[in-house]
Design a protein that fits this description.
Distance between the termini: 70 Å
Strand content: 15-25%
CATH superfamily of the largest domain: Aldehyde Dehydrogenase, Chain A, domain 1
CATH architecture of the largest domain: 3-Layer(aba) Sandwich
CATH topology of the largest domain: Aldehyde Dehydrogenase, Chain A, domain 1
Bound molecules: nicotinamide-adenine-dinucleotide
Helix content: 40-55%
Strand order of the largest sheet: 11-12-13-10-9-14-15
Number of domains: 2
Length: 502
């Protein structure tokens, strides 16, 4: 067997486990050189052993891979696992979290899930998916996020501790399918919960594979079975069943406005991480060349899929031409022909003109331009369009590298417009300026969860900026950049008249 055949064999076996058609499985990087005489079982066992994962026992989609045929079974398994998980020590938890990190930091696995995510959803790009999955595994906080508070005095000692909620139902998006599962699994398990995932049906296979890899690793570490589960057929009906099930203690929805509203109306504790429409403001004091580079990088990151990515530029007239010139040098393709702009609008927006046509979400700029008959240079990353402030490209979240640029007279007008087009999502905004007063003014007025100054939007996710990573940014419900403590209950434990040693 040569390396490619080995990689295909590994993919095929993983595919069997998650019912992925072998032809849809990506060509994984070979995990280790082998001798020609090796049997397939030996190869797979060694590939999994390299991740400290035991060889799978049977080609089924049930317990062992964490995928169940019904939501009811998945929840039952997570409820039982929650009872068992309570008996695990904090050290056990730390071991399990590290195990999850290790699985996805294994280069071949990282490559495989990143490639499959792009192939299956038809969205985003491989290189940026690698970055996102890596950062989810590396920079999602674990147990260290759960700091105990202590108060001691004449009346004794009181501890305040972050404690498990129980069983969490987590609804995940198609735009960041694997990143969200990795990120939520680490944070939710660190806080002592078990989790039932309801992924977007469009990212079924890669989501099931991600859950399976977590389960196989946790099993190898002696964890209770089914700490992280899902269903074999993700669907809207299964998500509805998850939301309604009384055994689910907390709901976490990462997605558009409809699902966020649904979980917030569920009567349960809910975390809603919803849509954004991040404006990037550029004023006359900014380093324009750097601003242009940062905007193109942020806007084109994973083909604009991140909810934090720049969705419109608002620039002070005095520097607008130079900014556009610099953005073109950094990979922007300026579309000037009014007819082509109208065709672009008809192409990428839905029939009602109220949002994107999903067929173009997360596509790359050159592909979109090709549909218009425009052959753009190979290094094209973003389609730039100068528009009025009321243009649908400005108003609606498109999630593709089509970037409207709006000119305004001065920075105050820019801030005012940015607040308006952010629509009160409280999500993300970006500003390029060296005027501290104006930076402060924008931060105060726009009230977003993330405000990035003089950098690309993804710096707010911990990619090239300080701070932890998350793929669940809860603006509507206020947890902000979620981490383990967002998924915990705060409990007080009081010892009366003792243990105060002062
Ligand atoms: P989406 O709203 O279509 O789907 C999100 C999840 O909700 C999926 O699992 C989907 O199956 C489920 N869902 C949606 N409508 C449902 C319904 N009526 N009944 C039951 N389940 C339903 O979103 P998407 O296209 O997967 O992701 C893109 C959206 O998510 C964008 O608006 C983006 O800004 C937002 N998003 C926000 C964050 C954040 O952290 N705030 C992160 C990623 C994505």
């Amino acid at each position: 067997m040569n390396d490619i055949e080995i990689a295909q064999a590994v993919s095929n076996v993983l595919s069997r486990y998650t019912k992925i058609a072998p032809e849809a499985a990506p060509q994984a990087a070979p995990v280790q050189a082998v001798q020609n005489s090796d049997s397939l079982d030996a190869i797979v066992a060694r590939a999994l052993a390299q991740q400290s994962v035991p060889a799978p026992q049977a080609a089924t989609c049930d317990a062992g891979n964490g995928a169940f045929d019904s939501m009811d079974e998945a929840i039952s398994a997570a409820v039982l696992a929650q009872v068992q998980y309570r008996h695990c020590s904090m050290q056990d938890r730390a071991t399990f979290i590290q195990g999850i990190r290790d699985v996805f930091l294994q280069e071949s696995t990282l490559q495989e899930i990143s490639r499959l995510a792009v192939e299956e959803t038809g969205m985003g790009n491989y290189a940026d998916k690698l970055t996102k999955n890596r950062v989810a595994a590396q920079k999602t906080p674990g147990l260290e996020d759960l700091t105990t508070g202590a108060l001691s005095g004449d009346n004794g000692l009181t501890l305040t501790e972050f404690s498990a909620y129980g069983v969490i139902g987590s609804i995940t998006p198609t735009t960041n399918p694997t990143e969200t599962i990795i990120n939520n699994s680490i944070g939710m398990l660190a806080a002592g919960n078990t989790v039932v995932f309801s992924p977007h049906p469009r990212s079924r296979n890669v989501s099931l594979m991600t859950v399976a890899l977590i389960n196989q690793k946790l099993a190898s570490l002696g964890a209770p079975a089914n700490l992280v589960v899902t269903v074999t057929q993700p669907s809207l009906d299964n998500t509805s069943a998850l939301i309604k099930d009384p055994r689910i203690n907390m709901l976490v929805a990462t997605g558009g406005p409809s699902i966020v509203k649904t979980v917030m109306s569920s009567g349960k504790k809910a975390i809603g991480a919803g849509a954004g429409n991040p404006p990037a403001v550029v004023d006359e004091t900014a380093d324009i060349e750097k601003a242009a580079r940062d905007i193109i990088r942020g806007c084109s990151f994973d083909n604009n899929l991140p909810c934090v990515a720049e969705k419109e530029v608002i620039v002070v007239n005095q520097v607008a031409d130079y900014l556009i010139h610099c953005m073109k040098k950094s990979g922007g393709y300026l579309l000037c022909d009014p007819k082509l702009i109208r065709q672009l609008q008809a192409l990428v927006m839905n029939e009602k003109g109220t949002g994107p046509d999903t067929a173009f979400v997360g596509k790359d700029a050159r592909y979109i331009l090709q549909q218009l008959g425009v052959n753009a240079p190979e290094d094209t990353k973003v389609i730039l369009v100068e528009t009025e402030r009321t243009h649908p490209f400005v108003i609606h979240e498109l999630m593709m590298p089509v970037l409207p640029v709006v000119r305004v007279e001065n920075v105050d007008e820019a801030i005012e417009l940015a607040v308006k087009v952010e629509h009160g999502n409280r999500h993300t905004a970006i500003m390029h300026s060296t005027n501290v007063d104006k930076l402060t003014k924008m931060a105060r007025q726009i009230q977003t969860t993330i405000f990035v100054k003089n950098g690309p939007s993804y710096a707010g996710l911990g990619v090239g900026g300080e701070g932890h990573a998350t793929f669940t940014i809860a603006g509507p419900t206020g947890e902000g950049l979620t981490s383990a403590k967002s998924f915990a209950r705060i409990r007080r434990c009081v010892m009366v008249e003792a243990l105060n040693v002062r």
